[in-house]
Amino acid sequence: MKFYVRRITFYLVTLWAAISLNFFIPKLMPGNPADIFRENLLRQGGEITPAMEQTIQLLFGSPDDSLWEQYTRYWSNLLQWDLGVSTTKYPTPVTELLAEALPWTLVLVGTATVIAFVLGVGLGAWAGWKRGTWVDSLIPGSALLQSIPYFWLALVLVAVFSVNLGWFPIIGGYSAREFRAGPEMSWAFVSNAAFHAILPAATIVISSVGGWLIGMRNMMVATLSEDYVTTAEAKGLKPSRVFLTYATRNASLPSLAGFTITLGFVVAGSIVMEQVFSYPGIGKLMITAVTQKDFALMQGVFLVITLTVLAANFVMDIFYGLIDPRARQNV
Amino acid sequence: MTITAPLSSAEHAAYLAQQTPVLTATNVSVTYEVKPPVEAVKHVSLTLNRGEILGLAGESGCGKTTLAYGLNRLLKPPALLTSGSVTFHDESGEDIDVVALGDKQLRAFRWDKVSMVFQGAMNSLNPVISIRAQLHDIFTTHRPAMSRKEKEERSAELLQLVGVDPNRLGSFAHELSGGMRQRVMIAMALALSPQVMIMDEPTTALDVVVQRGILREIMRLRERFNFAVVFITHDLPLLLEISDRIAVMRAGEIVELDTAENILNAPQHEYTKKLLGSFPSLFGERGDFVRTGITETEVGK
């Protein structure tokens, strides 16, 4: 119990620090969101009237406010789930843009990452268990997959399966022609989105499964020579029991720790893939925000990334504590 | 290749005549299939009698552990049992040909008839599951009829037997000291009341005080449950103290096999003499402390 209380406290403090950094870092960057907004407006042929100037000050805060006042206002806005207004897609609130993009990334990249992990660790454990047999020939193949750059693989998949064979759609998260009104909750839409997700998901799975496989296989081979595995065999335990509880459970610990880190990057790590497939996720949103200097959106995206990293770490920490008693004690 | 029988004595033959064997290994050879192949155990024949302690002594790498693993068919590739037979003479009078057992029969045989205590006191327990789960594993596999309550009671009883607080059942390996871990391993080895226990350097990783405590425990338990022990160590003085018979192994062969008394007082093989001489005496002249390899044994004679 104490372990969990300590972990939760730790994460609360980290959360506070991360959110504060998310406030301060953009302040340190050159450029001022209010100025950029004015420039954008002027460039589009607008005119800054005194009323407009007042709106801008309301939106971005008065330049005369102290840092502390801005900081407290940031917090109070945040608690009301108000992250400001995007300047590129003015006047859409940032929260709305995030809420639109997040499910795409979470579902696609999250599922693909979990599939890659489970598949890789499962195959790796099996390959380790069957070491010295024909299964070893899986290793060079997975090393090759592991070393393929992921955007290149994405391009190849698009070229082969979408452009030449025409089996899968080339871009997008769903067919914009069939669903003009945007996403809706219907079976037709979900299956359409799933169909669009196959190639991007395949890219992620293919390019990361090899790493999990090799890492797990090597750990498995090392674990199988541990004394407790020999003891389990001498005890006459069923091979399935030795495989799962004695070998795999111990061998998967390093992979699980690695998975924690990977899960944290689910949201941030898909930028290239989303760009290649024009997928309407967080990664694409971030590129837009950064190239357009849309500060509010950038802050919002960073906040979401931070929160997902923390949440993923938290979940994996608790899970790790469940399967490794040593972690429960020593943290 | 000629097979030379180990050096022995008339007393040894007389001793053997009074005993009933529980495990007979005949002409066992084990080869590590590496390049070049290593013949780790060469045509070894050995008999273990009911209720006796057979010491297996020899330097590191002489094939002691390989031989012990061969007896229980625990060898993994590249090690391969190239020849020989191992027969277990069950209490019921049935003879079990260990080498011919199928996978399932072999699993049923292991631990039930022959249990083992391994070299690494620190690593023989699975770090991620509790002592309870590891003890229950044995019962679940070999005594499927036992209820949870019976398993729990038997586990507590076993820990008590080896002098560990039964409250420790819920502990994990990292929460126990080295000595306690080895006691737990011995408790596990006792779980099914086996007729033979193979102990592969069970006390090597422990300091002498804990070592003594554990050895006493083993001796006490053996008197109580009358299982036979194959005790493997490179510590010859220790064997002299606890075993009934000692086999001295060198380069994969048993060079001398005799009663502990004869090994101490009348060693025949050069290597045995050397081994005996390599341990310093606590008594005698200052010079005797030097490991000459000769003085000690000559004094012994």
Automatic annotation (TrEMBL), chain A:
<dbReference type="InterPro" id="IPR035906">
    <property type="entry name" value="MetI-like_sf"/>
</dbReference>
<feature type="transmembrane region" description="Helical">
    <location>
        <begin position="101"/>
        <end position="129"/>
    </location>
</feature>
<keyword id="KW-0813">Transport</keyword>
<keyword id="KW-0472">Membrane</keyword>
<feature type="transmembrane region" description="Helical">
    <location>
        <begin position="150"/>
        <end position="174"/>
    </location>
</feature>
<dbReference type="InterPro" id="IPR000515">
    <property type="entry name" value="MetI-like"/>
</dbReference>
<comment type="similarity">
    <text>Belongs to the binding-protein-dependent transport system permease family.</text>
</comment>
<feature type="transmembrane region" description="Helical">
    <location>
        <begin position="194"/>
        <end position="214"/>
    </location>
</feature>
<feature type="transmembrane region" description="Helical">
    <location>
        <begin position="256"/>
        <end position="277"/>
    </location>
</feature>
<feature type="transmembrane region" description="Helical">
    <location>
        <begin position="7"/>
        <end position="25"/>
    </location>
</feature>
<protein>
    <submittedName>
        <fullName>ABC transporter permease</fullName>
    </submittedName>
</protein>
<keyword id="KW-0812">Transmembrane</keyword>
<dbReference type="Pfam" id="PF00528">
    <property type="entry name" value="BPD_transp_1"/>
</dbReference>
<keyword id="KW-1133">Transmembrane helix</keyword>
<feature type="domain" description="ABC transmembrane type-1">
    <location>
        <begin position="102"/>
        <end position="316"/>
    </location>
</feature>
<feature type="transmembrane region" description="Helical">
    <location>
        <begin position="297"/>
        <end position="323"/>
    </location>
</feature>
